Task: inverse folding
């Protein structure tokens, strides 16, 4: 005979583990997106760091 209580507990644990895994993946993706945005900003500044900071005007 099948132990229904044991199966229900196992399914609950599997569901919880899946929810925790999804949340951890979501957090990792958010951190990676922030890191990527920071790296893009640094790369943009390193290409021409003085662009627009100095200009000469003659009349």
Result:
């Amino acid at each position: 005979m099948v132990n229904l209580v044991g199966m229900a507990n196992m399914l609950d644990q599997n569901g919880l583990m899946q929810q925790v895994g999804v949340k951890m993946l979501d957090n990792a993706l958010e951190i990676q997106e922030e890191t990527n945005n920071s790296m893009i900003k640094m790369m943009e500044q390193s290409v021409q760091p003085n662009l627009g900071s100095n200009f000469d005007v003659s009349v």
